[in-house]
Design goal:
The chain is α+β, with helices and mostly antiparallel strands. It has five helices and nine strands; from the N terminus they run βαβαβαββββααββ. It has helices at 6-15, 29-37, 66-76, 127-141, 147-166; strands at 2-4, 23-26, 49-52, 85-89, 95-104, 107-114, 117-122, 171-178, 183-192. The strands form two sheets. Strands 1-9-8-5-6-7 form a six-stranded antiparallel sheet. Strands 2-4-3 form a three-stranded antiparallel sheet, covered by helices on one side.
Length: 220
């Protein structure tokens, strides 16, 4: 199995319309500071960031100065011969959940997990399956959650189902932060039996996504 790191996993998920927080693997405090300063942006403000360690995956507190970034980087790289530190733009507060997938006896299964609870379904998910998973989670953790929040989570789960169904990925694990009416992908890792080659997807207003191999009948 090939392990696919965080940044490459983000690229795969973006291909399926699942967007992550702005992130970069950094190899020095200066690299992390440049990421926070957004030197390649037309608006080069210093943006608060977090750093995530390559071993534990634990995130630092929000870092809003060069000194804070240097201290956090030094702490996270202690004892690491080849550290891989993920710098990430600070994300608004919300509820973190795990959306994961596994292959079991040739069947692919997607799951929503939180502390003390897990709900899962085989893919491909249809609207009823996505509604069941979203409702199961939201009813347990968010009594009185709005219809808009439930539909947002359903839409996200359908995108994860599409990604898992149409890719060669065997397992994946992601951390997603749910906001009131949106979400942010914070972390992701995957394994696959071979290198991934992303096929061209349909434009948003093209014919149904499940008809990617469709060819019109009649003379061509």
């Amino acid at each position: 199995m090939i392990k696919i790191d965080t940044i490459e996993s983000f690229k795969v998920l973006k291909h399926y319309g699942i967007h992550a927080a702005r992130s970069k693997i950094v190899d020095s405090p200066e690299d992390a500071i440049a990421f926070a300063e957004r030197r390649d942006s037309p608006d080069p403000r210093f943006m608060p960031i977090v750093l995530r360690g390559s071993t534990s995956g634990a995130a630092s507190a929000a870092l809003s100065s060069e000194d804070a970034i240097r201290r956090a980087y030094e702490y996270l790289t202690q004892g690491e011969s080849e550290p891989k530190i993920l710098a990430q733009e600070v994300t608004d507060a919300g509820t973190d959940i795990v959306i994961a997938g596994r292959t079991d006896a040739a069947e692919k299964i997607v799951a929503v997990r939180t502390a003390g609870q897990s709900a899962e379904r085989m893919i491909p998910l249809d609207s009823a399956g996505a509604e069941w998973l979203a409702s199961n989670y939201l009813s347990y953790h968010h009594h009185g959650t709005s219809e808009k929040a439930r539909r947002m989570l359903e839409h996200l789960l359908l995108r994860f189902s599409e990604f898992f169904e149409h890719s060669a990925v065997a397992e994946f694990r992601t951390t997603v932060r749910l906001h009131e009416n949106s979400y942010t992908l914070l972390d992701a890792a995957m394994t696959a039996p071979r290198a991934l080659h992303l096929r061209e997807r349909l434009a948003p207003h093209a014919h149904d996504r499940k008809s990617e191999d469709y060819h019109p009948a009649g003379r061509q």
